[in-house]
User: Fold this.
Amino acid sequence: MRELEYLRPTDAAEAVAAVTGHPGARFLAGGTNLVDHLRLGVATPELLVDVRRLPLDQVEEVETPDGPGLRIGANVRNSDLAADRRVRSLFPAVSRALLSGASGQIRHQATTAGNLLQRTRCVYFQDVTTPCNKREPGTGCSAIGGYDRYNAILGASEECVTVHPSDLAVGLAAVDATVVVLGPHGERRLPLTDLHRLPDDRPDEDTTLHHGDLITAVELTASPMVRASTYYKARDRASYAFALVSVGAALELAEDGTVADVRIAWGGVAHKPWRARRAEDALRGRPLTEDAVRAAAEEELADADASAGAAYKVPMVRNATAMVLTRLAREATR
Ligand SMILES: Cc1cc2nc3c(=O)[nH]c(=O)nc-3n(C[C@H](O)[C@H](O)[C@H](O)COP(=O)(O)OP(=O)(O)OC[C@H]3O[C@@H](n4cnc5c(N)ncnc54)[C@H](O)[C@@H]3O)c2cc1C
Ligand code: SF4
Assistant:
């Protein structure tokens, strides 16, 4: 049996100091991902700093730098966040993304920050008997030439071809969320789209955070466009299944029916929530038709590189994007 130290601070700065000062320390929130990894031998921390007593469990109405919005504490449970009436009405993509993830029981235990920082579901990552550069740098990638149905089609590297599993992260990318981080040198804010990284030659690093950085909150700014947002997830079963591909989107139409602004985020296609900025640029100022969305998605997918088993994701994400945006357009003109 491995020995493990456990701390349960009530002050965020204390939690940050405890992890920063110990290379083998990890934050623990709902435990639905980290505890699994402890049991599997994928994670071997020496100190667990439980953050659940930190006062980070409220959804508050705040003035963000870009206008009125919500500040979601890092410890807000996924079930509470999905049910929050302000989130449901002002940021439907966020609520729908949460409700499409995991199961009721897991959502009740899982937290906002923990969901964003959950690790990949790659089967090789979770099996310590197989080579995996993300789990053990330099050992190789078993998914290349192996079981490839869930592999990335965008932004992968020769070191790692896995995808990011969080639905919430994709919903938040579609509404331009900001992440608030407390580190050893104070607080900073970063766009959600800058939180996760592509694998490049360091697939063991999932995010741009440093050891000891604590996510304290996620901030959302309200606008008519994000009020007209949604999330769609294609998966093998209706519940308890990660995304094959998913689409978070927000749309604002001009009076003449052309696209005034649009945001498109894809899940299940890359090592991070993928903001389809090329597709967004292709759609702005154009009439929103199904063909226009398909063509825009094609532009985004020009660099797609899919292994045989994951090739279905290319048409799937294109079709899903066309369906989601044409539905949003119909609702906007109703
Ligand atoms: C059977 C099953 C099905 C699932 N299906 C889905 C699904 O369909 N979609 C989906 O999105 N997810 C799914 N999940 C994943 C689940 O949503 C995550 O396990 C959960 O959200 C993680 O949250 P947690 O609070 O339990 O995190 P923990 O397990 O406690 O922590 C996860 C990681 O976050 C770090 N961490 C936690 N809080 C902070 C903080 N404040 N600051 C910095 N680091 C922090 C921890 O150190 C750890 O590395 C599924 C899980 C299971 C077990
Ligand atoms: S795809 Fe990434 S996580 Fe999966 S085996 Fe390869 S290196 Fe590991």
